[in-house]
Write a structure and sequence with these properties.
With 230 residues, this protein is of the alpha+beta class. The chain contains three helices and twelve strands; from the N terminus they run E-H-E-E-E-E-E-E-E-E-E-E-E-H-H. The chain has two domains: 151 residues, Jelly Rolls; 43 residues. The longest helix has 27 residues. Keywords: Membrane, Transmembrane, Transmembrane helix.
Length: 230
């Protein structure tokens, strides 16, 4: 058997820059994060508190429906810097039934559920997760504060044992956008600053036209009316 070759296909879309475009911070929240690291610790030390994978033990299904066998794992994570959540999606393995992210006040920030394949083709394998639902929030609708305590919840079916599962939640947090009026004012100021010479020529042209009209008006007033006396 020869080497297996895998290919990754993706699309890059270029758009014109606009003042409304702001940078985002990518946060990957791990439900296995114990939070056992000081605030002054390095990134490497902080990662040691994340187990990344965990095991789902089978439940005692005696007298229970399959729907009642659910393993719920949750953790609290402090978000270092706030802003607006514009996108969110969870990552789970086979057996996952969904994940959710809550704010400090208990508000649901994003819920992400898995799609299972139903066929045999690549990307639609039966019994495997082939996608997760996403959250695309309108700007300004879902906000989080700096230092806010977020809660990550990951649910798995525990009708059987699952090893090496994951419960990650990805969010994109945009910086606070300036008011629309301020953005328009800044844009206008930029345009005027870059096109000052055009404005100068335009003002000069207007002044010349105004002077010509004024002079012509005075010359007209000095004319004597010609009356035909015949």
């Amino acid at each position: 058997m020869g080497d297996l070759k895998l290919y990754l296909k993706y699309i890059v879309k270029w758009v014109d820059w606009d003042p409304s475009i702001v940078p985002v911070k990518i946060y990957i929240l791990d439900v296995t994060d114990t939070g056992d690291h000081p605030s002054s610790s390095s990134a490497v030390q902080a990662l040691s508190s994340c187990k990344v994978e965990y095991t789902v033990l089978p439940c005692d299904s005696t007298g229970k429906n399959k729907e009642d066998c659910v393993d719920v794992k949750k953790t609290n994570i402090i978000l270092p810097r706030g802003g607006e959540i514009v996108y969110g999606v969870a990552h789970q393995h086979t057996g996952g039934t969904g994940s959710a992210l809550y704010g400090e006040d208990g508000q649901l920030l994003c819920s992400s559920t898995p799609f299972y394949g139903k066929g045999t083709k690549a990307g639609d394998e039966e019994g495997y997760i082939v996608g997760m639902s996403t959250c695309y929030h309108k700007p300004g609708t879902v906000k989080v504060k700096s230092g806010e305590l977020l809660t990550v919840v990951s649910n798995y079916s525990s009708t059987q044992m699952h090893t090496g599962v994951m419960g990650l939640f990805y969010i994109l947090v945009a910086e606070q956008q300036p008011p629309q009026k301020t953005m328009l004012t800044e844009s206008l100021t930029t345009v005027l600053a870059e096109s000052w010479w055009i404005a100068l020529i335009a003002c000069g042209f207007v002044a010349i036209v105004a002077a010509a009209i004024y002079r012509r008006g005075h010359e007209t007033e000095s004319y004597e009316m010609v009356i035909d006396r015949a």
